[in-house]
Amino acid sequence: MQSGKAFRWLAAAMLPVVVAFTPSPRVLAQATAYSDKPPLLLGAAWYPEQWPESRWDADLSLMEVAHIHLVRIGEFAWSAMEPSEGKYDFVWMDHAIALAARHHICVVLGTPTAAPPAWLTTKYPDTLRMDENGVRDEHGNRQQFSFASGRYRRLAHEIAEKMAERYGQNSNVVGWQLDNEYAEPSFDPEAKAQFHAWLKSKYGNIESLNNHWTTAYWSQTYDTFDEIPARQDKENPALLLDWKHFVSYTWKSYSENQITAIRPHADKRQFITTNTMGWFDGFDAYIVHSNLDIAAWDDYIGNEHYDYFDNGARHDLTRGFRNKNFWVMETQPAFVNWHRINSSLARGQVRDMAWQAIGHGADAVEYWQWRSALNGQEQYHGVLVGADGTPVPVYDEIKQVGDEFEKAGKALAETTPQSSVALINDYDSRWAIDFQRHNRDFDPVAEMVAFYKPLRNQAQGVDVISAHAPLDPYKLVVAPGLNVLPREVADHLLEYVKHGGNLVLGPRSGMKDEYDGLNVERQPGPLVDSLGGRVEQFYALEDKVSVSGDLGSGTASFWAEQLSTRSQDTQVLLRYGVSNGWLDGQPAVITHKAGTGSITYIGAWLDDDLLAKITASLLQESHVQPILPNTPDGVEVCLRSGANKSVLILINHNKAQAHIDLPHTMNDLLNGASSASVDLPAYGVAVLKANK
Ligand code: GAL
Fold first, then answer.
1. Is the confidence at residue 126, as pLDDT, over 60?
2. Which of the ends of the chain has fewer CB neighbours closer than 10 A, N or C?
3. Whose Cα sits closest to atom 4 in ligand 1?
4. Would 4-10+630-690 and 80-92+114-275 be classified into the same CATH topology?
5. Does any ligand 1 atom lie closer than 6 A to the CB of residue 242?
């Protein structure tokens, strides 16, 4: 494409070393310089500042042998970059990046702001985070800063800017990771003042806030914004929801502060991202990603219990943050150090997980970490290289992944998963339910996963999207628990249904407005008329209730809503059996044609088998076909498509071999075999292209 230009970048990066090392042109082109980096990248988190420089070459050589073409460096290294205020040392980083380039390894630079140096927190203790009870954090560990501190932001801007001035035009630096895993907010006086200002700009005057928050309740009426407490628990749900919104926008502006330091100096081909944590709900990830170029996340299972549906849902969730391919910025080389029992993935499962990431739209998979620091809090974590500096057993498996990424990379370049089914992930609703679960077992994430599983299994592709995302690409849109349903979102959904879309709402939908206030209509609030039915009453369940209808029978747990039909053509799909008297014989699931589409309301948390029957019927009615019918249980089917090409990835998550028939002869890019069926061993993977 832009080979001439890219080559100039490349030449500049390689200049000091090119005499000493002459790699093949293919490898050279793959390993460096922006768009010339391999389409699928295997990487590792590398902390050169923790090791003598004399060791680096050995590490990078071992990486190169394992087909690792990416390292992330710099995050947590503030004290090495700025040993004392205003005195910078980037020489070590210059060397590390140049040496990585020499080994055909490109670099993501982490800004080090998740770990401020001791001189900083000692001199400026006001930058330290404060908990809800007013206790300041102390130095040590990490993430001890206040995300709202103006002073901290100035210091963070300075270090990010210094890095960008130096590396923004370095063609071996492909992108930037801001900070690390945004997590804890701060409740210090500065953060509180910003919360008050944010509320003022949202509501305009205190009467409006009092009105939307219903502060007449328990004499909470406020006279000024300054009187409002900042809390994340045990408060008026309206306050709790606005606190979450404030936190989301504060993390966004925390990013912006560093983006404005980096962007003016950085080549436009360098992306800016941060690494997030799957279902983590400390902020609204759609807000936080709105000023980032790509999404990236840290994929940890914790122990050996790899639930590939839950993990797949987290990939799809992350892909939905920017609605495009993403990176796995960290994942475990077999095991972690922070779980109750840090058991290891079985042999083969690390590779299985890597290919699952690619199947769901990742373009890079990076292991955390390359080698444990000899001391520090994470000595027991999984690594690729042991304390003795030589590979540990999982290294070979990861090397195999790297080899395979090289084999299949070209075919997978410029491809992405595509789906005609969407699952709506709505932070306001998840928070609102979590503030008042009513049944402590009603976990909104578990509910998302309960719906995701059969949909993914049957349709073999699901997008996880925000309630505000465009819905036209989808034949079926499922909102498992759209508890908060503002008029604007209801209109968006109705527009979709009017034009032929099929919408499914799960229990607790449409109960609240955007202030977390109760809708004055019964559930699902603004959708009652189009549904031709409504919720008469909700019940938290201690015991299971039987449910049955034409589609089958089973049980409801945790939650059951007594539904009613309000239109003659509303169909009842399931009814409750004998229960508390209120529910007995009443509708549990109803469906209604609306416009040229339909709305279905599922009023209970159904058991997995029954839910699978319902989703199968919904998919059929919506004309959604599986990609590869009749695949054995436990075999995951992923399709990535691009202009005039598509690649099928099959992953056998089972402990036993599986046989899969293909629609026609296909070519396995990993082993060169061409066949109309594949036999995958336990945790086996095939990456298939149609024979032309
Ligand atoms: C991540 C974190 C890494 C490392 C890892 C261990 O959450 O970003 O720095 O601590 O966990 O699993």
1. yes
2. C
3. 368
4. no
5. no
User: What type of residue sits at position 394?
Assistant: V
State yes or no: pLDDT of 7 exceeds 70.
no
Would you call 330 a catalytic residue per the annotation? yes
The CATH fold assigned to 421-621 is Rossmann fold (3.40.50)
SS3 375: coil
Categorize the per-residue pLDDT at 34 as very low, low, confident or very high, splitting at 50, 70 and 90. Answer: low
If you take atom 3 of ligand 1, which residue's CA is the nearest one? 368
Q: Using one digit for the tens of pLDDT, what is the confidence trace for 400-419?
A: 999 999 999 999 999 999 99
Q: Say if CB 361 and CB 331 are below 8 A apart.
A: no
Candidates 64, 181, 366, 561; catalytic one = 181
Q: Identify any residues that bridge with 512 across adjacent strands, giving them in sequence order.
A: 484, 518
Domain 4-10+630-690: homologous superfamily in CATH = Golgi alpha-mannosidase II (2.60.40.1180)
Superfamily of domain 80-92+114-275: Glycosidases (3.20.20.80)
Supply 316's token pair: 């799809």
Question: What pTM does this model have?
Answer: 0.95
Q: Domain spans of the chain?
A: 4-10+630-690, 80-92+114-275, 421-621
603 C-alpha vs ligand 1 centroid, how far in Å? 39
Which residue minimizes the CA distance to atom 12 of ligand 1?
336
Distance CA 540, CA 561 (A): 9
* The pair of three-digit structure tokens given for residue 211, joined into one six-digit string: 């009105």
Confidence at residue 302, expressed as pLDDT on a 0 to 100 scale: 84
Residue 17: pLDDT over 50? no
Query: Could you tell me what percentage of the chain is helix, strand and coil, using 3-state DSSP and rounding each to the nearest 5?
Result: 35, 25, 40
Distance 299 CA to ligand 1 centre (A): 10
Q: Compute, in angstroms, the gap from residue 376 CA to the centroid of ligand 1.
A: 13
Instruction: Summarize pLDDT for 414-436 with one digit per residue, the tens.
Output: 999 999 999 999 999 999 999 99
**CA–centroid distance for 292 within its chain:** 14
Tokens of 168: 């923004």
Q: Is 447 a catalytic residue?
A: no
Q: Looking at ligand 1, which atom is closest to the CA of residue 377?
A: 10
- Nearest CA to 17 out of 70, 95, 69 is that of 95
State pLDDT tens for residues 67-124: 999 999 999 999 999 999 999 999 999 999 999 999 999 999 999 999 999 999 999 9
- In ligand 1, the atom with minimum distance to the C-alpha of 300 is 12
Could you tell me the distance, in angstroms and rounded to a whole number, from the CA of residue 47 to the centre of ligand 1? Answer: 13
The active-site residue, picked from 49, 64, 82, 330, is: 330
